[in-house]
Amino acid sequence: MPDKAVFQTATAGDNSPIYQVCGKNVSIGTQPRLKLVGPPPERPTPPKKTSDESIMLIPQMEFTTFLGRDDLLENFAAWATDHDPSQPVSVRVITGGAGIGKTRFARELCRTLSKTCEYEAGFVRDREARRFLSERNLSEWGWQKPTLAVFDYAMTLIDVLPGWMEELNDIYNSPYPLRILLLERQAEKDTGWLKQIFPDGFNTTDRLLDGEPWRLPDLDGPSFQLEIMQDMLNRLGSDFTLPKENTEFCNQLTQTDWAGTPLFLMMAAMVMHQQGGVGQTLSLRRTDLAKKIAGHEHSRLLKVCSDNRSLKIFLPHLAAFATLCGGLDHATLMDVIAPEQAAIGVTSLDSAVVAEILEDALPGQNGGVAPILPDIIGESFVLNYLGNRNTQASMDAVIRSFQQAPTSVPPMLVRCVEDFAPVALAETEVPDIKEQQLAIAWLQALGDQKTLPLVQLILLVGALPQDTLALRELAANWQQQIVDILSTGTSENHPLLAWRASSLNNLSFRLSALGRREEALEAAQEGASLYWMLVQQIPKAFENNFMITMLTWLSLRQNVSREEARELFEHDPESHLRALLEGVGGVTNK
Length: 590
Prior knowledge:
Blueprint: E1 6-11, E2 17-22, E3 27-28, E4 34-35, H1 70-81, E5 89-95, H2 102-116, E6 120-123, H3 126-135, E7 147-151, H4 161-168, E8 178-184, H5 192-197, E9 214-215, H6 222-235, H7 247-254, H8 262-275, H9 286-304, H10 309-324, H11 330-344, H12 351-361, H13 375-385, H14 391-404, H15 409-419, H16 430-447, H17 454-462, H18 472-485, H19 494-513, H20 517-537, H21 539-558, H22 562-571, H23 573-582
Parallel strand pairs: 5-8, 5-9, 6-7, 7-8
Antiparallel strand pairs: 1-2, 3-4
Helix pairs in contact: 1-2, 6-8, 8-9, 9-13, 10-11, 10-13, 11-12, 13-15, 14-16, 15-16, 17-18, 18-19, 19-20, 19-21, 20-21, 21-22, 22-23
């Protein structure tokens, strides 16, 4: 297959035109056409020298060898190639913490499929995901090859992925498999962003989902860990060789909080290279490593400012602002420069000059400015340099960034909260406590806006994971606000009634996570009752939704798992339905 796209035309017997496009990373299918961005057939050759060493940590650069996950790769390759023509679409979800290697794993899967069979495999960028859905109903897609579409940072596509899944769910026949892979830090089966994408959930009959979310495991084994670090040192041009036979060194490595995470192994190697040896690297935590690399990025930006004091103040802030937004195209960058200058108190800079300098320092793929990556380095940079280290200025900047990128900003702030959570409330943890509290304050400022539209509040709540303790109270309060807003003017409006019922179900999960089970039970009871009322009026449209909320209520009332609740309901549906509608009893002690 040619590396560059080749366009060919011909004429059929009835004089109708025939068009064919061949090559890598081209549009596929008939109409509409989806552009997939796949990895090259062979691992890219790293540049010999770069002033931006942090670029070496980005998954797309593939600076180190892919190790330790061959069995999982084989499993996913089998999933992608096994095909039942009557059920052609299948979706899997991969989760895992910062730097665990989700993106790199997906790239290896794309490369494996492209090499071993006639497969089109690659990543769907945000703009392409929205454009493609808007062209026509995806149930009429008609892809012409086995296809794998990877959606990285799935939470940032919460506004478009439900439409994708709804329309793909209507496809019941195709000679070729279509596989969808969603990548995200976390995913709860019955709430949050995953629940918004798959309203029927994992505990019902959603035909697209292939099992529960897969959590990418740590990279076990010191041999793999040491190999990644040494590989990185070699590519940095370091003369330093790790003391692999030193038992004390190996033991210290395994006791760090980053030994099983490829990204942090690479970052540790980078720190060793910069200081010419191991030094105190093994005593650093993952956030310490991130701060060091973020500091290096800050120094790099200051160098391009020469002696311009105003630019040295403003450029790091603007880089942090762009990173919080997930990057900015050129037009948006030009729009935000003047307001951001005024907010920071620097008004003497030419917008075109500032844009050119930042775009050169952080070049976007299609112009504009890219975010500082990987995630945790960008997060550290934002926490330290947004608003020029002024708390109120940074809070105001977060609100402005949210207006620019409402689907990108909340997930990044959540990642800041998660990644900079202190492991212990000790004196040495004070910096992390402050950074996490700052990220929480930023989120609070977003949700407390008096003019915040309901849709944006829903996006904000959907970004908050249930298992992050520091955000549970915030999530429950905002979810209650959503329920309250939807409580007026919905009695005769079926879509709004369903929206309120779903919001009540989500509220029950949030309250249950806080240990407020009686309140959770009340919310679930009201949500299930609303859905039951809708079932009486439009049965087929709301039966699945009713069962989801019914099982939520029953599992809370009986203090059992959802699976056990399903068994209880199936054994005696009439009595449980009667109890629901009559609002009988509270939480049992079973």
